[in-house]
Amino acid sequence: MPAKKVKSDSSYGADSITVLEGLEPVRKRPGMYIGTTGPDGLHHLIWEVFDNGRDEAMSGYADDIEVALLPNNRIRVVDNGRGIPVDKHKKTGVSALETIMTTLHAGGKFDHDSYKVSGGLHGVGVSVVNALSTYVRAEVHNATGRYFQEYSIGKKKAAVKKVGTTKKRGTIITFEPDPTIFSTIEFNYKRIITHLRQQAYLVKGMRLTILDLREVDEKKLDLTNGVFYARELTLNAPSMTFYFEGGLRSLITFYNQHEKPVHKNIFYCEKEDVDENVVSVEVALQYVDDITSHITGFANNIHTPEGGTHLTGFKTALTRSLNAYGRKAGLIKEKEENFTGDDVLEGLTAVISVKLREIQFEGQTKAKLGSVEAQSAVQSVFNEFFSTFLEEHPDDAKAIINKSILALKARKAAKAAKDSVLRKGALDGMTLPGKLADCQTRKAHESELFIVEGDSAGGSAKMGRDRRTQAILPLRGKILNVERARLDRMLSSDSIKDLVVALGTAIGDVFDIEKLRYHKIIIATDADVDGAHIRTLLLTLFFRHFPKVIDGGYLYIAQPPLYKISRGKEVHYAYIEEEKAQVLKAMGVKGDIEPDTMGDDEASVPEEEEEETVKAKSTKVNIQRYKGLGEMNPEELWETSMNPENRVLKQVTVEDAEDAHDVFNTLMGTDVVARRLFIQSNAKLAQLDI
């Protein structure tokens, strides 16, 4: 076989190699440094600047941080730490402040003498913010005076300038993101509060203030004339201040504010200098009357939503400690089996925080801790302190053990129910539910499953669908609220059991996303209160038991039209009120729409269709208001809601799992007071269909 001829190119030489200098790499590939140029990346700029002040607080040099949202999309972050050094840097020959602000991988966080622990160990923080901002001002207050320097897109405007003396100590960073980098510049005050509140819990004794000054007259906001904290000015603007002496204890109390505790005392432990790399291990937990667990991990104050070695060590020690104490105290009988990891996690709210000198994350997003030392450190520290807690608080210990015993019994019942569902599918040759009208293709990426409300809509959908790729599963009435239901009770519901079998993934610990039979699962319910309730119940089911279906982008909500507008053979569908107005305007209808005198007898028009007839250019325009999919004939349903060429689908995503957990817990849980307060607080945001 002749050798393959390799192409040659004499033009490829040293001149072909691009060298990006200074902060150019950040502007060229911003996603590599902040993850995305969408809202997440935009807010990440705040976290990067805030982390510098927080690290000063973690090291004991600061205790008061302020974050202010200013007009013109500017953010101002102040800390009362040591202040960024302003003296000349030996290697760069310019001020250390300028070096830190304009050079990648320059900072004090690589030196353990300056920072024993830091979240921002990549050393790119504030310089990346500088690179991605049209304006940055750094102001430093230290023993030698007050200094400032300004920058634009990562480059200094002038040298560091001293502007006087000061009694303050700390650093002020003000920045304005570059609109050519970010898709939209819109900071979310609630999102900022949520993130920074969490940080305040993690650093005991740190005062944290967030101000929203975006609507304040700019003439009152001259913050360059020596004003340190913006709160020193007399301004009528939204603000929040957080200060927690209790640390993780306070965070557990916050998480469980709408829950019923199983035991009185919150467990808490902290140990410093565990080994050469692990600076500290801190754990707090409390069990509540719930069937889900809420475990949050932090590494150097960075939230690790995907867990990691610190959570693995915690779970191992928790299971061993409860089994050991349960046997010793006679609470677990001799013939009974030990608890599994799932048994001891039921109803648990826990926070695990580790701090390491050298930290390793899996992946660029820091979502999972990879440092192996964290596992053994957390395991040994937690086991020691929790075993002592159980001995010293026998009533609490008994309540926790009894909670786990109930979970063990429920697990056995759930396994029997789950095996029954799986066995039915396996023994019947994967027999699918009788109500399911399946599609012909067996290729998951082509297949769509419509979950529709009621037999009427199901009948129209079955007749109007594309049989090759579209499957229909009608539900009769409202499914079980699974927020507080165990697996065995869930699977006793025919509707849920049918859905589990139809999806093909199984459920619980044997769930397998690779076996998902449809890559588009579309919830199609009526546009009324009952339809919204059924949709919410289904979303609860998917969020709690099929989260990977949501994460994979497979779950959608159908958006059927609100109106059918026709004139003769001309037919239009409107999905929102504004679209209805546009269609009528295009048809020549002017002013208010009034029913034709021949049609104002309400009895002559079916109530559910709410038809209106208006005159335009001597031709009647008929407006039909849809309230249910079952009102549509198969052709209408196909054309408006099922035809991929015309339909409108909303993809279900989870931007913040913590917020989503709280919302589902509030709306679908058992705390009536919390639900009423939520409804009262958000009533004005509701879109009523009257």
Layout of strands and helices, then pairs:
Layout: H1 24-28, H2 31-34, H3 39-58, E1 64-70, E2 74-79, H4 96-102, H5 125-131, E3 133-142, E4 145-152, E5 155-156, E6 161-164, E7 170-177, H6 189-202, E8 207-212, E9 239-242, H7 248-255, E10 267-272, E11 278-287, E12 294-299, E13 302-303, H8 309-328, H9 341-345, E14 348-356, H10 372-392, H11 394-427, E15 448-453, H12 454-464, E16 470-475, H13 487-490, H14 494-503, E17 520-524, H15 529-545, H16 547-551, E18 555-558, E19 563-567, E20 570-574, H17 577-586, E21 612-616, E22 619-625, H18 634-642, E23 649-651, H19 657-668, H20 672-682
Parallel strand pairs: 1-8, 12-14, 15-16, 15-17, 17-18
Antiparallel strand pairs: 1-2, 2-7, 3-4, 3-7, 4-5, 4-6, 8-9, 10-11, 11-14, 12-13, 18-23, 19-20, 19-22, 21-22
Helix pairs in contact: 3-5, 8-10, 12-18
Could you explain how this protein is built, in words?
- With 690 residues, the chain is an alpha+beta fold.
- The chain folds into 5 domains: 219 residues, 2-Layer Sandwich (Heat Shock Protein 90); 165 residues, Ribosomal Protein S5, domain 2, CATH 3.30.230; 158 residues, Rossmann fold; 63 residues; 35 residues, no CATH class.
- Helices cover 34% and strands 19% of the residues.
- Strands 1, 2, 3, 4, 5, 6, 7, 8 and 9 form a 9-stranded mixed sheet that branches. Strands 10-11-14-12-13 form a 5-stranded mixed sheet, sandwiched between helices. The protein has a 5-stranded mixed sheet with strand order 16-15-17-18-23, sandwiched between helices.
- A hairpin with a 3-residue loop joins strand 1 and strand 2.
- Helix 8 runs parallel beside helix 10.
- The radius of gyration is 30 Å and the shape is globular.
